[in-house]
Amino acid sequence: MANLQLLNQMIKHEMCYIITIIRCLSVACALLFFISCDNRDHSKQDHLVFRYNEHKNIGSLDPAFSKDLADIWATNQLFNGLVQMDENLNVKPCISNHWTISEDALTYSFSIRKDVFFINTNCLVMTQPDLLKPAILNIA
Description:
The protein has helices spanning 2-36, 69-78, 133-137, and strands at residues 83-85, 91-93, 96-101, 108-112. Among the domains are: 48-79, no CATH class; 82-140, Dipeptide-binding Protein, Domain 1 (Dipeptide-binding Protein, domain 1). The protein contains 3 helices and 4 strands. A hairpin with a 6-residue loop joins strand 3 and strand 4.
């Protein structure tokens, strides 16, 4: 009989312990629910985030190193080229006004639009394309 009473007390003690854990977990879940719900308007910040859904890992955001479709599509979303293709696959100007091709087809000269600015908001200076030469030469 004493063993049965001792067993009964142990079960009651364990049940109280389990009920205390359940209550603590319930309070924690309720607190987590109320803390995670906020009514702040995030739409003011949406223009600061670029969201891009891609099923494959993007290897490079450098246009010079874009080797497959996933990389090319991502860089096309981030960068403007000198020219672009229209819906009929005709070449048309993008950041250039017009261009000329030398008679031997080895030299392409582009006239850049006046309203083209770069990240540091400086207008393009004609010597700046020389900065791209090392990156282009490293492709080979």
